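Why does this matter for the project? Reviewers at the last site visit asked to see concrete outputs rather than summary tables. In response, this paragraph embeds two records directly. Each consists of the residue sequence and, immediately after it, the corresponding structure tokens. Nothing has been edited or filtered.
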Amino acid sequence: MVNRNLIRGLDLNEEDWAKELEESIDSGDIADVYTFESEITPNQIVDGRIVRIEKEFVIVDVGYKSEGQIPLSEWEEGEEPPKPGEMVKVLIEELEETMTGEEASKGMIALSKRKAAKIEAWMKMMEKVKEGDVVDGMVTKKIKGGLLVDIGVHVFLPASQVDVRRPSDISEFIGKPIKCVILKIDETRRNIVVSRRALIEKERAEKKNALLHELEVGQIRTGTIKNIAEFGAFIDLGGIDGLLHITDMSWGRITDPKEVVAIDQQIEVKILHIDYEKEKISLGLKQKTESPWTNIDEKYPVGAKVNGTVVNVMSYGAFIKLEEGVEGLVHISEMSWTKRISHPNEILSVGDEVEVVVLSINKEKQEISLGIKQTTDNPWKTVDEKYPVGSEVTGVVRNLTNYGAFIEIEEGIDGLLHVSDMSWVRKITHPNEVVTKGKQINCKVLSVDKKARRIALGLKQLTEDPWATRIPEKYQAGQLVKGKVTKITNFGVFVSLEQDLEGLLHISELANHKVENPEDIVKVGEEIEVKVLRVDPDERKIGLSRKRAEWTEEQAAEQAAEEAAEQAANPAAVNPETLRGGTGDSSGPLFKLPGENN
């Protein structure tokens, strides 16, 4: 007997059949389709003979007491139309005893040619195929979640199993023959699931394994560009992909792999490395030609002048292309002998043609050091001849610092004018007291150091040193002079004797009595008369006394005698280190009298 649920499940048109596959409706067991009983019973497949054709039905004799009828629509379009006398396999759907309505009144039994054909097709398929078999079929239509494929019966091909990479539109397979493998047979649900992808992957794996053992490092192979990424391109070598890294595409500079390769392009590459365990292959394109660095030291010997093109400018220098695959670096320090360059783009731009000198070559690291300034003579080589010591030069004040001023003698060549060389007599605390940035000034060359690239300049040396003769001659010990108070400190008072010349009036020399605060005795700007105690040309200092200016000759003689006696009795009482007063420092008085603590 035939399972009635199975029969009902087969009474479907193509769309209903597809829906059945998709929704997997449970229709029970399909174990026994045929029966060997001699009597005709419902759900039995039997042979019948066509008796006649009446309107929309075909009347068939199946050897029963009543004839049966089949809808004429069960003969497909294009199929040979039924003719009286022909034999046809039919399925007994219902006997007249179980029928109701018009069919029962006519004494007809219900038959189905289509269901009989489907049941036979399914049973024959179950005898021929099993899970894992490869089958051929025709894609008939697209259904929810995949495709319907006719392999003798309709089977389901999920969209995820159509190809290795899921197509954007699986409808393109409709009407095309395909080969696939049976993944699962569900006889209960009358469903077969197949996969085209699994078959492709299996074939590729076999081909990949065979190809992997054919490949050898150093071989030249032809492949197809399948994918391009920022770091390189993937190439199908005929079953296995290899990576052509961007650094292996050209000996020259490449920023994007698309500059060299394109999708689906056929290309010859060299096998660089094979990882059999991870099945990874490294490919090279530039390795098909000899490296331009092979004889680099012969092509570009150190010291040679060559021409190149600026291809990149960085904060630390510029890269110069000498030929395809060969670039050198001009460091910022090698761009000019004299110019102060803060960034290479001040003198170079990408695309500029420049002449350079090869400074050094590191063949192993593929590095070349280049210089631009070396294409011209170094002006520091002859700077001592151009600016000999003792000569006068004219320059512009370029920069001021706490310790001096930099004077630009010519473009890129500076000399340092130190604060100590600005005046013979003035104590300069900052260069801006004497010079102004951007102004022209005359100086004398004091020294030249070509190796260190330094020139020392002097401003005061343009005039005679007044401490050599004029000041010692003009100011002598015991002389009374007048001056103006310029500064008051806790240890004494500075008195201006003439322009740019000061003497120190120590607090102990302000008055005959002990002075705690010099401002109690004198004021800034006040003109006072003082006596010169000592003039020290070596230390460039003058020591003064206000109290002694008021002494009589007898007082002065008496004081001198006391000092002489004290010194004779105790020579160490007067320490030379204490005899230091002078022009504007805080080092103490020129004289320290015996018995004084201040």
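We now turn to the second protein, recorded in exactly the same manner.
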Amino acid sequence: MVKSPDKYNADGFGEAPQSELEGTPLSGSISDWAKQISEETAKPQPKVTKPKKTAAKPTSSSRTSRGTSIGGSSDPKTRAAAGLNPVAGLDIALEDTANLPAGGATATVAALSALIESGNPLFKNGTAWQPHRPARPSKSEGGIAIRMETDFQPSGDQPTAIRDLVSGIADDDKTQVLLGVTGSGKTFTMAKVIEETQRPALILAPNKTLAAQLYGEFKSFFPNNAVEYFVSYYDYYQPEAYVPRSDTFIEKESSINEQIDRMRHSATRSLLERDDVIIVASVSCIYGIGSVETYTAMTFEMKIGDRLDQRALLADLVAQQYKRREMDFTRGSFRVRGDTIELFPAHLEDRAWRISMFGDEIETITEFDPLTGQKTGDLSQVKIYANSHYVTPRPTLNQAIKSIKEELKHRLVELNQAGRLLEAQRLEQRCTFDLEMLEATGSCAGIENYSRYLTGRKPGEPPPTLFEYIPDNALVFIDESHVTVPQIGAMYKGDFRRKATLAEYGFRLPSCMDNRPLRFEEWDAMRPQTVAVSATPSNWEMEEAGGVFAEQVIRPTGLIDPPVEVRPAKSQVDDVLGEIRETSAKGYRTLVTVLTKRMAEDLTEYLHEQGIRVRYMHSDIDTLERIEILRDLRLGAFDVLVGINLLREGLDIPECGFVAILDADKEGFLRSETSLIQTIGRAARNVDGKVILYADHVTGSMERAMAETSRRREKQEAYNTANGITPASIKKNIGDILNSVYERDHVRADISGFAESGAMMGNNLKSHLEHLEKQMRDAADDLDFEVAARLRDEIKRLRETELAISDDPMAREVELESPVSGRTKGRHNAGRAMHRVVTDENSHPNSPLFRKNTLDEMTVGRTEKPVRGAVPEKPAGPGGTNRNDDTIIRRERSGIGSYEDANDARKKRRPGKTGRPGR
């Protein structure tokens, strides 16, 4: 086939000619380009009559319900004429702005160029940025001392660490480091420092799980003080986003946890009203919430004897976004009954207020239980806080609406001049709806995107966060700082890129980019005195502290770090197998870390074939399933757990006697110094714990990790010798120290008292059965017969499988299946193709195939059982008439169809992982 000649290039691979540059080329720095472009755009453009030409047809424009999107076009000329990057799917590059038509660069480009050229991120708009310190109102519940309620006394390294940290705080040290090994009681040390300094505190945790653990600990330490919980209130959150390459817009989708929302309101209220506040928060506290000024401005106080108009009071409650509900009285609502107003405050869980009026005078204020209506106390005065952190006074809201309309007008002109009509129409439609909602109700969906105008901040300044609520004399404790600090630094960039794309394509105004988390430099400038707590502090903490740290290596329980041994990696699997058998013979558990998911599953399969009771755990396994795996490991249902990176921080298994790190010489994230030290620490909860690194040569990370472990062991052994502590004596009392305050600084799978000293699998199962029987009787007493029947069936199943589980945990899936019928013992086997059939010669041939259940058989499982007797043959099919003929096409489950080919059966897109060998 003869190729047509290419008029651009002889070999046929040349580029099409680009449109020539019109107008004056841009000069100066990139940061000045946006200003020049806007000036050029403002100039009146002369009308030039050009002959009409047929526009180039886009090669692949995407058609949606909103019409044809220019964002889906891949034709370079079409995209460039519309102000887009000639390459489909990419935003406008800063280097290409000179080649675009006038008006093609948008506010996103200006923001990006300013961001790149700014250099110091704390240098904004030509001046150095100073953190905002709003004025706080006088506190109505101040003057309460912070006091610990505990029977434990500091021991080991704790007295020295507490003294050093308190001294550094008194000397106004900005950053300190507490290097505390696993199980050394770092949480107890933090609580003691708070008590001795008598300062409010903010404890930062890297995730919700550790935050909940710390919240429970501090709640038990300070029962008479305000210990609050401030994490993201979303159970599920999918932020809105736009993918230009495929012209896909992802709507915002979220599920709000009402309990966490209440705790957030309680936290901000306590910060404004009390001195004895301890906030346990996740990294989400660097995201924007309402400003302190507007939040406090929308607060009003009432006391007995005040005169006020009832209608004005109701209007004020509506302005605070409380909802009037006569029937459904829930948190954040109120109801009116004559001269009595009942209010359910946003920060309370099980208490509400009843305000009784005589004419226009408040006669009594009563606290009552909203469920029963029973009175719980009398109050002299109350202060009502808003039902939302984004509540805004009406004058501020009116001014914000004007500013939003002004920005919308300029942005629409900008998009229309660039020829981006679809984006202009989209933006006008969305913003007009939001403005109408703001004018009518004072709120709208996504109101946080207009936070710049609602809070009065300048462009580029960060929004108000929790750090503006905490007082200047507060302390910040960063738990697991080697994980938490990098999280803080990573939040901003991803959020900025997503918001910039939304603004670029008309889904949001460019001001939405000011609704963002704090940049790391801004957080660093805003944070008060800080203590970084970690077993492996990273470079940032050590540099900020000048290389000085308070060390907490001695464990109050006397346990020492495990010995570390290096063995060749060539025979690592066989060597691990031998060590696992020795460890299991002693009654201990084993943790094995590998590099990939495939290696974890293959090693689990191999160990299972060798007769080892083993499971694996990695990111494909659901969170709830992980908790069950850890619980089964501690109970002894299996002996070995194979994992990758989940066997690092926060995993607490006192029964673990051996940790194997395979391929330890593969330098990288999973085998860095920090990872190795954290993984080695998993064996530090057991007296006989040991660690083996399998490597053909010793890397720098291995050498440093082993040196640090040896240093800690020497110090611990010297302390035990000097104080006459014998760690081996704790061996028989491991069950007694599980709930010690020193052992609760990490997440442990709760086994509800089953891991008692000397307890065997049979004893644990027996106790579990007794517990289930008690629950069954209690459910029957409460007339909850469905739960009682379900518990009864579970007890039957466990009794049938007790011996099999003791021998092999895989018996639940293998040995418990009948070789004849395929049924599983102790279960109803709903949906199984085969049933247990007993031949009955006296059965009538025309009798129904299924019979009704007895009362004892009516459970939530199967509803019918096969009749005992002969089963009629299956109807003739295309493959034969014999019932046992495999060629007969069997009926599939409902929803697939009737008698179709088995190859058409639908399969799961991604099979779920269970952690069991081969699954």
